[in-house]
Amino acid sequence: MSEEKTLVDTTEIDTRWGDQDKYGHINNTVYFRFVEEARVQWFEKLGYGVDGSGDGPIILKTGATFLKELNYPTRIQVKSYAGTPGNSSLPMYHEIIDSEDGSVYCTAYVTVVWYDHSSKSSMRLPDSLREHIAQLDKNPSV
Fold it and tell me: pLDDT digit string (tens) for 41-60?
C-alpha cells in the first residue's frame, strides 16, 4: 500500500558542468544535493531555520532510484511531496524531472526528523508545518 503524498513545492535547478563525473553524466551523489536544495528552500520559505540553531529539520534516512541518465546542461524541476506526518518525523518524496519534456530522472525519499539542537533530541513537528501540509492537501496549488 502506498502512502498518500501532498505536493508541497517545486524548485527549478540548472545542472552545472562540474556536476558531471568521468562518465560524462551527472554524478549520482549530486541528485541528493538537488533534493537537499529543494527541501532547504521549502523549509526556508516557510520560515523554518536550517542553520543548526534552535530547532529544525535533520535527516534520518534517505534513498533514491536512478531512472534515466542526466546530463549537462539541463534545467530540472525537483517536485517535493510530504507524506503523512508522524510525531517527530515527516516522510518526504521527491521527483527530479526535466523542465522541458517532463522526463523523470530520479525518485528519492527522505525521512526528516524535527530536532532540538540545544537538547540534542527529536521533538514534535511544529503544528504550523502540519497545518500547512493539511491546507495544501485540501487546496493543491503548487
Answer: 999 999 998 998 899 999 99
